[in-house]
Amino acid sequence: MWAIIGGSGFEKNPDYRVINSHHLDTPFGVCSASIQHIRVANIDALFLSRHGIYHELLPSEINYRANIYALKALGATKILALSTVGSLQSELKPGEIVVPTQFIDQTKGIRKTSFLGEGVTGHVSLANPTSIELVSALQNLLEQLDFGIHFNRTYLCIEGPYYSTRAESLYYRRIGADIIGMTSFPEYALAREAGIGYLPCCIVTDYDCWNESLPEVNLAKVMDTSLKNKEKIQQIIKRLLPKTLDLLAKGCPELGLKHALLTPIEYLSAQQKSWLSIILA
Predict the structure, then answer these.
(1) Range of the structural domain that residue 22 is part of
(2) Out of 44, 105, 208, 246, which one is annotated catalytic?
(3) 251 Ramachandran zone, left/alpha/beta (phi>0; psi -120 to 50)
(4) Domain count, the chain
(5) Which of 76, 61, 74, 2 is nearest to 29 (CA)?
(6) For 117-161, how does the pLDDT look when each residue is reduced to its tens digit (9 = 90+)?
(7) 15, 105, 146, 206: which one is catalytic?
(8) pLDDT at 9
(9) Predicted local confidence at residue 12, as pLDDT
(10) What CATH number does residue 128 fall under?
């Protein structure tokens, strides 16, 4: 089943018909919001507002572990992760769509970044954090869209809530980042641990602040550009979801914790075995 995680400006969508809502207690705490079972493009899917229903959660306050765990428990095998980003490259213009396939983490260690720890040890590869299969499926649909998409770019994740200083923005360009946001990490890493295919889809809203000839980024511009380009995201959803129902139908367990645990399961507590049974499913 597809799960859609909505970021800034995606909390509500008139194209979604809500069938019911799930309020799950997870071993990792409370989700950002109730998870909605929706009907979109004539298929069933799950929807979660990353920042809460009223956008009340800062990026570092989001309980990423609870969100991914709950989506996995409800049957998600693939995630379409929507967000807004700033551009660090002149060719990535505001209003355009970027699908990053690599990430650089520049958060500050505040966030809970793994299901592992406290007696459960393992190591999962993040060499290819974005699902190659889902990226390919979206590329195959480009002829059906009336806009282009930039692929194979690198997303740099900062802590926030501040936007970058100009010195930071210039530094991020030098180390090879193409877009900048605040919510990709640890979301993609936790999806990988859970064996869920992850496809990020980002709307460029601004040029950050590296280009001194352009106005500085501000919230009003970010939200305005996001709202004006939401239809592009809706086109992607309407075309991608129905065409990929069978793709990754069982998730990607071979890439997750299922084959990356070091601690023998028989030495774990009953509680640890319980939540691991969901993650390893």
Answers:
(1) 2-279
(2) 208
(3) left
(4) 1
(5) 61
(6) 999 999 999 999 999 999 999 999 999 999 999 999 999 999 999
(7) 206
(8) 60
(9) 65
(10) 3.40.50.1580
